[in-house]
Amino acid sequence: MPEVYVKVTLKKSILDPQGSAVEKALRQMGHPVDAVRVGKYLEITLSEGLDRAAGEAALEEICRKVLSNPVIEEYVFSLEDRP
Amino acid sequence: MKIGIVRFPGSNCETDCLEAWRVMGAEAEMLWHQETSVRGCDLIVLPGGFSYGDYLRAGAIARYSPVMPAVIRHAREGGLVWGICNGFQILTECGLLPGALLRNAGLSFVCAPQHLRVENAATAFTRAYAPGQIVSLPVNHGEGNYYIDAAGLQELEEEGRVVFRYVTESGAEGGAGNPNGSVNNIAGIVSRAGNVLGMMPHPERAVESLIGGEDGGGMFRSVLAGKE
After folding, report:
1. Which domains does chain A have, with CATH numbers?
2. Complex prediction ipTM
């Protein structure tokens, strides 16, 4: 069954105070950093026996309705077949 | 007026709400998040706290709890719904109110008395106040930075749906008057039909002079004045 990796990030138009704080700290330490955005990363194992198309459809709904808030966030996911 | 307060796992202001209603002369009852009806209540309160640990996003999991379809149905039928703090976050997550609550701009959790201006004193929740009245209510949140896109903001402002705005004691907006970076200093809004209100400050913690002051009492009186 596919292993799914999901990234949820704040839309570019939304200020990310967490990212700004991390960015400032990194710069203060002398690291060559221009920008930092903080987001979420999730690993999901879909149910046994699900084909790829059904998995993708389920994932779309999961990401849109639950894992992200479309008012402020966007998401990407990738499916990889487990060895 | 039958009043129900929804208790989610992680709610922590539901008992304060119950006590506030008692102080204001009304009996409220507790609704459990696993129930699938609102037991015919006229007003549903979604209290503050950290429902489901604020996991994923504040309010993101609570909005899918079994009681919420009944709360949403109640709101769509014109029933009163009042979300305070985490309750406001749940109301934006489930789409009963527009916008979203982001991490506070300064990253700090804010916990202090806060001055607010009553911008709309014509709602079922605020009619006991005078328009433009400045009140002091406690704020207590880490994610109260109200955000809405430019079109949505214009709509809220034009329709007079901003109910409370953060201000300084003298009524100035912005700067030290805004504790969390909320757009247009918005502290509370109401739905277009006026029956769903969400706010970050805690009026239930301001109904007795001994603790927190009495400025929150007007909201309870407003609601009770409208009872059949």
Report:
1. 2-81 (3.30.1280.10)
2. 0.85
